[in-house]
């Protein structure tokens, strides 16, 4: 085949053809990946909720309660958990923008008495090997079973009860802030909605 | 016979003699940016191989239809389309890898390795040679990124492909996971690579 000459018409036509084809292909791929994408996001949420709550038999995703947040653009989502129609706790997400590299997002599960069931770090951009230890069991285990009404959610350096990660006090503070936010929202939720 | 030899050469040159990372130092942005673990390096390598292969095939098929003066925008549209497809598919089916690679997936568009092969090879050669060229370059890129990621992960995190071989709280060379460690590890790896290939050739 002879190479096309570069005239006004051939240049316009060839570029239009290429963009047209790629536009159709991208539209098609976008359509078929739309559903799996939503499914993947939902699965991630369900897994995080399962991690932080005791065994439940309702669907917290369907029972979700959204409260507009004063601090963040996102509304706060509360996922209540029931077993045999008895309220056994709720999972809440908490955010902090004070991480060493910005946003830290966690999912925390609370029992009806306000004590912490478990915490899962959902999003973080902390320094690998230092701040990322937030996700480690050795850091998270100090929170399990504690009730923030008596357990001071501050770093021990600031007079609280939390042992900071060595070399990552800033990350720990941000983590505490997001946990406090989740706890405050949980208490507000308890007084406002009084489940059962 | 000579034709077969040619194809073998097209394939091998990308892996050894013209290895995109260790020899030509192309595509440094993903090379340095995502190789904090071996798995991330491998994932990035495979995504790049796919885009490289598809763009080489398409460019080589329609090369006679593209007027010379608009060939660069045409290549860029083709490459960008395949990168967007990769991004959508990863988000839908391998969300874990999609989150790890983050901004580096859309940045495959500007990986000069891909545009470089389209311009220097696929637009001048037939389909078969272009496929072998893309496979060779892509495999060379995968090997380089995975080995770089493996070295950084072993030294910096004490693990290999996520399997940890030191206790959770013990210290490791954190430097190698941080950005400066990428430069140091890359320099030593390409030193070793070039030393070894110098001897064989």
Write the layout of secondary structure elements.
The complex is a heterodimer of chains A (196) and B (201).
Chain A: H1 8-52, E1 65-67, E2 76-83, E3 86-99, E4 102-110, E5 116-123, H2 137-140, H3 169-193
Antiparallel strand pairs in A: 1-2, 2-3, 3-4, 4-5
Chain B: H1 2-15, H2 28-33, H3 38-62, H4 71-93, H5 95-101, H6 112-122, H7 127-157, E1 159-160, E2 163-164, H8 179-200
Antiparallel strand pairs in B: 1-2
Helix pairs in contact in B: 1-7, 3-4, 3-6, 3-7, 4-5, 4-6, 7-8
Organism (chain B): Winogradskyella alexanderae
Function (chain B): Part of a membrane-bound complex that couples electron transfer with translocation of ions across the membrane.
Enzyme class (chain B): translocase
Question: Care to describe what's here?
Answer:
Chain B: It is found in: Cell membrane; Endomembrane system. Chain B: It is a multi-pass membrane protein. Chain B: Its EC number is 7.-.-.-. The complex is a heterodimer of chains A (196) and B (201). By secondary structure, chain A is α+β, with helices and mostly antiparallel strands. Chain A has one domain. Chain A starts with 7 loop residues before the first helix and ends with a helix. The model of chain A has no long low-confidence stretch (mean pLDDT 85). A five-stranded antiparallel beta sheet of chain A has the order 1-2-3-4-5. In chain A, strand 1 and strand 2 form a beta hairpin. With 201 residues, chain B is mainly α. Chain B has one domain. Chain B has eight helices and two strands. Chain B has a two-stranded antiparallel sheet. Chain B is globular. The two termini of chain B are 22 Å apart.
């Amino acid at each position: 085949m002879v190479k096309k000459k570069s005239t006004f018409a051939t240049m316009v036509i060839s570029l239009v053809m290429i963009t047209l084809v790629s536009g159709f292909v991208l539209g098609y791929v976008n359509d078929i990946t739309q559903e799996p994408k939503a499914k993947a996001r939902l699965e991630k949420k369900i897994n995080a909720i399962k991690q932080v709550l005791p065994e439940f038999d309702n669907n917290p995703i369907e029972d979700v309660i959204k409260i507009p947040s004063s601090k963040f653009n996102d509304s706060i989502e509360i996922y209540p958990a029931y077993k045999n129609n008895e309220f056994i706790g709720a999972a809440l997400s908490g955010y902090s923008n004070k991480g060493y590299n910005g946003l830290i997002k966690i999912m925390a599960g609370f029992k009806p008495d306000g004590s912490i069931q478990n915490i899962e770090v959902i999003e973080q951009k902390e320094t690998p090997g230092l701040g990322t230890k937030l996700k480690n069991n050795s850091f998270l285990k100090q929170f399990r079973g504690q009730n923030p009404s008596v357990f001071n959610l501050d770093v021990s350096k600031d007079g609280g009860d939390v042992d900071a990660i060595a070399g990552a006090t800033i990350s720990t503070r941000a983590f505490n802030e997001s946990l406090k936010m989740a706890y405050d929202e949980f208490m507000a939720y308890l007084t406002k909605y009084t489940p059962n | 016979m000579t034709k077969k030899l040619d194809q073998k050469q097209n394939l091998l040159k990308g892996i050894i003699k013209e290895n995109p990372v260790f020899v030509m130092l192309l595509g440094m942005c993903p090379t340095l940016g995502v190789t904090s673990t071996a798995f991330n390096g491998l994932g990035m390598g495979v995504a790049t191989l796919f885009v490289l292969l598809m763009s080489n095939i398409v460019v080589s098929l329609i090369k006679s239809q593209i007027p010379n003066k608009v060939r660069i925008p045409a290549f860029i549209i083709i490459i960008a389309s395949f990168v967007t497809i990769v991004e959508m598919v990863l988000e839908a089916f391998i969300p874990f890898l999609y989150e790890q690679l983050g901004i580096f997936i859309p940045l495959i568009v500007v990986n000069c390795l891909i545009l470089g092969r389209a311009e220097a090879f696929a637009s001048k050669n037939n389909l078969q040679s272009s496929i072998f060229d893309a496979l060779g370059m892509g495999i060379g890129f995968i090997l380089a990124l995975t080995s770089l990621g493996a070295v950084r992960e072993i030294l910096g995190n004490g693990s290999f492909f996520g399997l940890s071989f030191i206790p959770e709280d013990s210290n490791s060379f954190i430097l190698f996971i941080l950005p400066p460690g990428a430069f140091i590890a890359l320099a030593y790896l390409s030193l070793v690579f070039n030393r070894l290939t110098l001897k064989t050739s």
